[in-house]
């Protein structure tokens, strides 16, 4: 299974093509829209999320509510597009009517959006302009933007619909916003799901959530931004997804890549992660027991050993850096004039960790669905179910 996405953040729409879904899987469009709505929520987001109302429009690959086994294509319209149509039209003068810009500047009106030449530290602006030989940073920032994560949530939602047929579920919660951290605790999957669905920040502890909200408010007041950490968990994963035999078949590597490729994610930990490096072996490795089936007395490995699921729940964390666009300006240098400036900002998120946790949850769901199809693959849902049930029977006999 694979996918491609296209689209600029303020372009007409973002689009995607997903290939490799088996035939005869019932697709609940509401479930996809629910995931998209979850991604739009979370305390700390800026003005853009009040403009957008992400809804999936499926163009092909589904008939009568079921997959055909053919490529599935879809799009989400950008409701902000009418404000950018002139600037981002595929053909035309990019809206850079210099006379009009001059008149508008004189009259302090701002409907024309001039060329962007002031790169933001921490964003893709400067590196992208150098690499792609661009003089307008808009040609970089439009595609670097995390608007694209709406597509990743869409394909992840398809993945989770498939996983659900096999009783596998994925959830997430916010572990840290800046300096405010949720203490490590024994977590019950159903509890995380219910509480994180209710909470504005998607931290599962009410008191800590309030502290996180206060931290975001404080940071906003200061014109600053915040990062944090989220954790993704799964239930009912069978042992044996992924493989130890080649570097590019190892599931931990694939999950890390999927998470690291989310905008602003700078670190991934499986299970104990970095903490394992400072402990002794006896305090890290999960002892093996047998009770009708193999299981572990702890889950410090986070459900993966040797690049394969070991039958315990997957536990994986990702660290997000603070949002690069700051109301409190940082110094930078104008691309054209080479003059120093302090950036001014029109709108931005203060933090997007709660949104990123939903993206994380869905990219993990997609990678797991892919690994699931690699192991139990078939062209129809019925064939995959037969393969899966056969494998479960084999495991029962071990
Ligand atoms: C859900 C989400 C929302 C984001 N919102 C913003 C934003 O409003 N302003 C901003 O400058 N960066 C935002 N970012 C982060 C940038 O997209 C990201 O830092 C940039 O593309 C550079 O990539 P890098 O941080 O991975 O190096 C957001 C990221 C995510 C995941
Ligand atoms: C549009 C989304 O996130 C955007 C990601 C983003 C960035 O630079 O990554 C910048 C902001 O966009 P704008 O510049 O239009 O305010 C965010 O709102 C979204 O999540 O759907």
UniProtKB/TrEMBL annotation:
SUPFAM superfamilies (alphabetical): Chorismate synthase, AroC
Superkingdom, taxonomy of origin: Bacteria
Keywords from the named record: Amino-acid biosynthesis, Aromatic amino acid biosynthesis, Coiled coil, FAD, Flavoprotein, FMN, Lyase, NADP
Amino acids binding FMN: 143-145, 263-264, 306, 321-325, 347
Gene3D superfamilies attached to this UniProt entry: Chorismate synthase AroC (3.60.150.10)
Requisite cofactors: FMNH2
EC number(s) reported in the record: 4.2.3.5
GO MF entry, a single one: FMN binding
Residues annotated as binding NADP(+): 39, 45
Cofactor note: Reduced FMN (FMNH(2)).
GO biological process, any: amino acid biosynthetic process
Coiled-coil annotated residue ranges, if any: 180-207
Listed pathway(s): Metabolic intermediate biosynthesis; chorismate biosynthesis; chorismate from D-erythrose 4-phosphate and phosphoenolpyruvate: step 7/7
InterPro entries: Chorismate_synth, Chorismate_synth_AroC_sf, Chorismate_synthase_CS
GO CC annotation, single: cytosol
Catalytic activity: 5-O-(1-carboxyvinyl)-3-phosphoshikimate = chorismate + phosphate
Family from the record: Belongs to the chorismate synthase family.
Subunit structure, interactors included: Homotetramer.
Function (record text): This reaction introduces a second double bond into the aromatic ring system.
Protein name in UniProt: Chorismate synthase
Gene label: aroC
